[in-house]
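User: Predict the complex.
Assistant: Input components as received:
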Amino acid sequence: MELKEKIANDFATRFGGEGNFYASAGRINLIGEHTDYNGGFVFPGAIDKMIMAEIRPNGCDTVRVRSIDIDDYTEFGLNEEDAPQQSWARYIFGVCREIIKRGGTLKGFDAVFAGNVPLGAGLSSSAALESCFAFALNDLFNDNSIDRFELARIGQSTEHNYCGVNCGIMDQFASVFGKKDHLMRLDCRSGEFEYFPFRPEGYTLVLVDSVVKHELADSPYNRRRESCERVAGRLGVETLRDATMEMLDAARADISDEDYRRARYVIGEKQRVLDVCDALVAGDYETVGERMYQTHRGLSEDYEVSCEELDFLNGLARECGVTGSRIMGGGFGGCTINLVKNELLEKFTGEARRQFCERYGHEPKIHEVIISDGARKL
Ligand code: GLA
C-alpha cells in the first residue's frame, strides 16, 4: 500500500476524518563529513526516502501521535515536564518545545506518521522526522512565519536538548532545503549555501548499507566533537574552520595524538569539499571520486568512525573499479556512498552482495540514490 494511503487509513480509524499531509526527506552527503560542527562545508542533498505525516490541530493542549512503523501510540502535553518516554516521540516533543521556546505558537494536535527512510543507515531518518514536524507545525500554527533555516535549527536543537546528540546542522538543513536533482554546498559558519545541479551523466550514486546499526546518542560522536573543540581552543580559533595544517603542526606538542589526528582529518576535509564542487562543475568525476576515497581513509584512520564492514565495502569498491566510495554520515556503522559508472553497476552491486554475505553472513541493502525535494506540504 502507498505510504499516503496507509497513513490516511490509520488516521481515519484512530481520530476520524482527515488532516493535512506533510513530508520530509532523508539525506545523502557527497562529501564533507564531520565538518558541520567545525564551521566547515558540507555537500548534501535530500533523497526520495521520506517521512510522511498526517496532522490536524485537535483544539486541546495534548499531542496525540502514532508511529505506524514502530506500531506505537503516545500522548503528551506541551510543557517541559511532559516529555514522553519513547525515544521516537521525543523527536516530536523536542520540535514542539523548541518552537515554543522561540516564541512560536503551538497547540495540541493529532498525528499519524510513517516512512521509508532506512533506520540507522546514516540517512538521517531522525532529521527527516524533525523537519517534517517542524515544517508542519510552522504551517499549521504559525502562518509559516518561522524561516526555513530556523526550522533546521529547531531540529538540531531537538537533537541537542532532547535526544543527547550534539550534532551539527547538516542533516536538518538537507531535509528542509533539499531540491530535486540538486546538491547543496552549505558553509556551516556563515549559513550561506548554493545549489549545484547534480545529474552525473553516465554515473549512478549507490548506497551500500552494511546493516550494522549505530547509536549516536551518548556515543563516540559527541567525543569526536569534543576533540575538535579542544584543538580549536588550543589553537586559539573559534572552530577548526579557521585552523590550517601549519597551525596544527606548530601546536602538535600540546595536543594528544588522538586529538591531532581528529583535527588533521577535519582540516583536510574542509578543502576536499571545495575540490569536489569545482570538479563537479568541470565534469571531472575522477577527481570527485578520488576525494571520496581520501575522505574514507581519513574517517577510518584519523577520525576512527568506520568499522570493519565499511572498510571492507570501501576496499571492494576500489577493487571493482568504482570511481568513488566512502563511509557516509556520522559513522559507526551505516552505509557507504559510491559513485559508480553505469557500466560497472551490475558487477559492483553483485560483488558487494556476494562477497559481503560470504564474509558477514547477511546481505547488505543496496539503494540507488535519487536526489529529491525536502520538507513540503503535500
Ligand atoms: C551526523 C550528524 C551531522 C554530521 C554527520 C557527520 O549525521 O547529525 O550533523 O555531523 O553526522 O558529517
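The chain has two domains: 3-197, 203-369.
Let me know if you want any component modeled separately.
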